[in-house]
Amino acid sequence: MDMTLAEIQKHLSALRLHGMNATLEPRLIQANQGASFVEVFACLMQDELDYRSSRTTEARFKASGLTERPTLTEFDWGFNPKLPKKEIYELVSGKFVREGDDALLIGSAGTGKSHIAKTVAHAAIQTGYKVVYREAHAFFENLFEATQLKRRKKLTKLFSETDLLVIDDLFLRKTVPEQAADDLLEIILNRYSSRKSSLITSNRPLDDWGKLLRDNAASSAILDRLLHRGHLLKFEGKSYRLKEASIRLMENKQKSSG
Predict the structure, then answer these.
(1) Beta strand spans in 158-235 (E)
(2) Which residues lie across from 134 on neighbouring strands?
(3) In 75, 82, 125, 127, which residue has its Cα 20 to 30 A from 57's Cα atom?
(4) How far, in Å, are 44, 91, 104, 114, 122 from residue 85 at the CA level?
């Protein structure tokens, strides 16, 4: 049965073989240049697999809450040489997610905690894990809104069961919601019992968490679970944000004088 190229493409589309459809023409050229049927067909199947993998990865990224795709390539290690470089690379490798461990990134503002947290999240997505990323204020706001809208159970399930939960900049704001201690404790206990990984960044020392949550018992229980199988990384040094601001200021001055 003979078919035109347009008919084959129509059938591939109907079968939702969009990866094959996208590369059909160059694969036909490959066949005309002497490649065997098996070779070309194998390439077409790989094209389809690559397409589906890419679509799945993109869907995981959109569902995660991330808006950036950072890597360690652009990270300036020389600016803060005291950062725990080896431990950071271990986190980005995803080993702690595979093993169901947790991570706490603690240190001064601007020392790279959020960049590393987002890099870890992005790498985990690319590896195939389901990730949820939230800045701390959004995390608590999401839970409050879900409670008001009678959707608490669904959101709690999402936060509790995702492979990696990242809560960024905990205690960045001076006050947290009144229910923050109970909300955070519930999620961490759920994740601890099901051996799901959590990563939290904060510029406040662990000793302050009880006072900030206004609940020493809840704070102790949260930290007990996080540190039991956790990696504690301390970030020390100067602010990358101030460095970037200084560079922009210098560039603007040069443009003005030029």
Answers:
(1) 164-170, 197-202, 230-235
(2) 167
(3) 75
(4) 41, 10, 15, 15, 18
Task: Indicate the pTM of the whole model.
Answer: 0.81
CB 24 within 8 A of CB 5: yes
* Cα–Cα dist 206/104, whole Å: 10
CA dihedral 147, 149, 150, 152 (to 10 degrees): -40
Q: Where are the alpha helices (DSSP H) in 33-171?
A: 37-64, 85-93, 95-98, 113-127, 136-148, 152-161
In the chain, where the domains are located: 5-62, 77-243
Per-residue pLDDT for 121 more than 90?
yes
pLDDT per position as a tens digit, 166-176: 999 999 988 99
Contact 247, 209 (CB under 8 A): no
Q: Give the CATH fold of the 77-243 domain.
A: Rossmann fold (3.40.50)
- The pLDDT value given to residue 41: 87
**Could you tell me if 70 and 118 are in contact, meaning their C-beta atoms sit under 8 angstroms apart?**
yes
Return the structure tokens found at 246. 């200084």
